[in-house]
Amino acid sequence: MAETRSEMEQLYNQSIKIIRDGQIISGKIVSVRQNDVLVDVGFKSEGLVPLAEFDKGDLEVGKELDFLVDSVEDDAGLIRLSRQKAMRIHGWDKVVKNSQDGELVEGRPLKKVKGGFLVDVNGIEGFLPASLSAFKGVPDKDILNKNFKFKIVKINNLRRSLILSRREAIQKERQVAKDKLWQELKTGEICSGTVKAITDFGAFVDLGGVDGLLHITDMSWSKISHPSEIVALGDKIDVVILNLDKENNKVSLGLKQRLPDPWQEIGTKYNVGSTVKGKVVNIVPYGVFIELEKGIEGLIHISEMSWTKRITNPGEMFAIGDILETQVLSVDKDSRRISLSLKQLEQNPWLEADLKYTAGSKVQGKVRGFTDYGAFVELDSSLEGMIHVSDMSWTKRINHPQDLLKKGQKLEVVVLSVDAQNRRISLGLKQLQPNPWTEIASKYPLDTVLDSEVVSITDFGVFVKIDQDLEGLVYANEIDKDKLAQLKPGDKMQVKVIKVDVEQAKIGLSAKI
Question: How far is it, in rounded angstroms, from Cα 428 to Cα 374?
């Protein structure tokens, strides 16, 4: 009987845990009272835990939790336990492990203090410096008591305190999201993004951590001059992934690729020789671009605008938005080019030019413009001819056509020749008068000494005026070098006739008398 009692006591003592102060043990909630909670920890007496140390979700009879032994036995014979201290120790261990593994931790900023925030991380107090918070411009109400991810940048094991960084956590979250996105992106797929920047050559689109370039040429099947015509900052757009370069972190995107290519059926829609209507959408120095339909444009080259007018600035004739009827000259599907013409819809006046303007006939015209070598004259049929400087005067040397003629001036001219194939009409002004050079040769025989006035000086000689509208050339080798160096326009000098060329209409002179 004594042996049985001894065995029972031994079994009883073995069933009771050996508990020491500061130990973390597991216990089961037995009952919840007004101010405290009774916990069965497998000891001869139950443990007592303040009610305030529990989260509401943990207050459930029968639930097992970890507790820290504050005191093995108080005056009432109960074990004093702490739920919060156990959580802190567990939390600290977890925090240390997370820090060693480089993982982020979750915490709640509880209070704003000088230089930053106090943050609760698994029951551990952490300090978040303002410089690492990434909360600039964010109201306190959107920060305090809200959960955020942080990176532990420093641990003080002695004080069990932490230095946290929200900024580095954001960087890591972005990198993780970016790596994940790179795994998900596939060429040819459609994805959503936000326009974050616009440049002259395209727009950068944020795909959710990875930026892609939407080039201006991939925005629309129609020609556009700037990306802002299609997208704006902050726009949410769906784009096609054209190319992925993971090595260089580059993504090429397309917007127009979501729509059918209008050029695929171009051959059956626009036949050479057909008449089409379109809207002027762009004016360039060499022509005008016409939108025939969305995504299809043709070019009227400057040479295809008029049979008769010399057009140097298309902007003087057309404006953006003008509706024009044109003729299709050619269609190049591969190069995506359509050539159009305005003048082909009109009768070509050059076909009858040689019949209407015969050589030697006199016609009326109006000066339309100048070049260094002549003047352009518009004739009554709107065809244009040119008077070369050599055909403006029999005797006067014309340096600039504007010295003799004015723009808009009406005058009579003689038709010298017509080249309909090359669209040229040569006109003469001096031919209205008889050629005076036979009389000039008689009036100024060789060795005649004349008084003259210097008009201009060149490398090959000096032009002098010897009569009204009559000039001659004093050859450079016919003037003393010292005297030549001193001459200036307006100087008087005596010259001698040494050559008269009736065919070339020239008088050669010498200053060596």
Answer: 11
Residues 240 and 280 in one domain: no
Residue 500: which residues within 8 A CB-CB, separation 6 or more? 437, 440, 441, 444, 445, 446, 506, 507, 508
Residue 179 resides in a domain: no
Q: Which two tokens stand for residue 122?
A: 């698994």
Cα–Cα distance measured from residue 509 to residue 452, given in angstroms and rounded to the nearest whole number: 11
Half-sphere exposure of 389 (CA within 13 A, CB side): 13
Residue 92 placed within a domain: no
Cα–Cα distance between 341 and 323 in angstroms, integer?
14
Q: How far is CA 100 from the centre of its chain?
A: 46
Q: How many CA atoms lie within 13 A of 231 on its CB side?
A: 31
Q: Which residue has 């013409």 as its token pair? A: 341
Does 96 fall in a domain? no
Residue 465 CA, chain-centre distance (Å), reads 62
Of the residues 226, 258, 290, which one is the last residue of a structural domain? 258
3-class SS at 53?
A: helix
User: What's the domain range around 37?
Assistant: 2-86
Q: What is the pLDDT along the chain (513 residues), one digit of tens a residue?
A: 445 545 544 444 444 556 676 677 888 888 888 888 888 887 777 888 788 777 777 788 888 877 778 777 766 667 888 777 777 776 676 777 776 667 788 888 999 999 899 988 877 788 999 888 888 888 888 889 899 988 888 877 766 778 888 988 888 877 777 777 777 788 888 989 899 999 999 999 988 878 889 999 899 887 788 999 899 999 999 999 998 887 777 889 999 988 888 888 887 888 898 999 999 988 999 999 999 988 889 999 998 998 877 788 998 889 999 999 999 999 998 888 999 999 888 888 888 788 888 899 999 999 988 998 999 998 876 788 999 998 999 888 888 899 899 999 999 999 999 988 888 899 999 999 999 988 888 999 999 999 999 999 998 999 999 988 898 999 999 898 888 888 899 999 999 999 998 888 899 999 987
Instruction: Copy the structure tokens of residue 41.
Output: 């920890």
Residues in contact with 116: Cβ distance below 8 Å, sequence separation at least 6, in sequence order = 127, 128, 129, 130, 131, 132, 133
**CATH number (domain holding residue 56):** 2.40.50.140
